């Protein structure tokens, strides 16, 4: 005798159990009477005390249960009792119910200029109870690659509280995409108490571009809209490529320092930003920084 493994579902859907009774020759054989069903929710409350299965064919029975929107999420249990040759036999199945199912969508990739990529996304709480939602997002170089592991180009994660039936819009930025090319921005989300994920993927082409010019005159580069950074004073002759702050890595911090001196005249407080020593900071220095990115 076998009972189907249902797996999981969400509120406002239908649960279905299927039972098959086999004889010793594995031929479907009718039970003495119609099997009965007991369904218990994750809080231990019996939701179906004595359901009766329907006969679909010889030895095969099914039962459907409509799950209301206010049902509690978690692991539910279905227990089926059946009499075979005068003997009572019981079998059960555990399945997951999501009461705060998520829905996610990538609205637009708003910034495709490397190394910083930004996407606008939306996460919906499709359930009937408010919850904290955990979301993971990443940029990968292969559509088949999932978020996680050590092969993401860049990744991040966070949580957000969403009321029942509501949604949030997020602007998600990843700033370690080193080269232009084709990538996939991915996001997945679920309520903290749930096991089912919702996911979305958007393909895009990352582009090389001229960084935005500084907008605030002298004094160390008050660039319009750029993030303030601490610019270390580095003695001339101690430069190490594009590692402008001498932390032995080339990343977004060095990129921010480069922007602070973009298209300004020498001398520079940090002379290392003029990587090719032509007395100006421009696209040539930016290209060298990209070549050394994460090296």
UniProtKB/TrEMBL annotation:
What GO annotations for molecular function exist for this entry? hydrolase activity, hydrolyzing O-glycosyl compounds
Gene3D superfamilies, A to Z: Dockerin domain
Sorted alphabetically, which InterPro entries does this protein's record hold?
Dockerin_1_rpt, Dockerin_dom_sf
Give any single GO term for biological process: polysaccharide catabolic process
Q: Which Pfam families match?
A: Dockerin_1
Can you say what this protein is called? Dockerin domain-containing protein
